Amino acid sequence: MDKVVRDAADAVADIGDGASLSVGGFGLCGIPSVLIAALHDAGAKDLEVVSNNCGVDGAGLGILLGAGRIRRVVASYVGENKEFARQYLAGELEVELTPQGTLAERLRAGGSGIPAFYTATGVGTQVADGGLPWRYAADGSVLVASPAKETRSFGTADGEKTFVMEHAIVTDFGLVRAWKGDRHGNLVFHESARNFNPLTAMAARVAIAEVEELVEPGELDADAVHLPGIYVQRVVPLTPEQAADKKIEKRTVRPRPTTTQA
User: Fold this and answer.
1) Which of 115, 135, 158, 228 is deepest in the core (most CB within 10 A)?
2) The CATH number of 8-115+168-244 is which of 3.30.200.20, 3.40.630.30, 3.40.50.2300, 3.40.1080.10?
């Protein structure tokens, strides 16, 4: 039951070339930065990443992206990463854009054993009809486009409506960051840093959690646990320095008020 491993390098040592990863975080909030850095050092390439976004230039998943280690991305937002845009438009990266709520539910479904589900999101658009550019050719033409998805009508309280079928996501590995965790893998996330983390762990066959504070089994209030240890296979306790090293994606401050002397 003790799932603690020595360090991040040991935790990601068996993530090989071509592996699929679900990665927690929203922007740079709640990202498993230590595990990402260890994976970069390990040299794995041709990765398929499922995450809300792909980090920013030089931080988060942007480190792997900048090193050319990512082959394909399934994400809902990619607007803060110039290298991402360059690789996508140059045909170096395959990108499956997915509505954010749909992405979250695809991950949750994967972790719950639900193979597919119907949603109204995307009906009447290229999300359902197909044709979204997944990969460009070097000349700018579309090399790979999204396929059309199955749609079906259901009777609702508001009458007959059309829904599109979305498939669940299951990945080889999941990387998440937690505020607290015990040796059994039970995790607690801090406020908005929870974001996609529980879902990405659920969807992974092997979920690896870096935790800012490791506690002993029984120290966490059972009602406070956000993700039970059944979904987590490895726990990496962070040093105080690693836990405190958090980047801010955008810093917004008010103008300094002008003062006048009497």
Assistant:
1) 135
2) 3.40.1080.10
Question: Whole-model pTM above 0.90?
Answer: yes
Q: Using one digit for the tens of pLDDT, what is the confidence trace for 73-106?
A: 999 998 778 999 999 999 999 999 999 999 999 9
pLDDT tens figures, 118-147: 999 999 999 999 999 999 999 999 999 999
Q: Which residue ranges make up each domain of the chain? A: 8-115+168-244, 116-130+141-167
- Quick one: CA torsion of 197, 97, 120, 192, rounded to 10 degrees? 30
User: What residues contact 103, with CB distance under 8 A and at least 6 apart?
Assistant: 50, 52, 74, 75, 76, 169
What whole-number distance in Å separates Cα of residue 36 and Cα of residue 44? 11
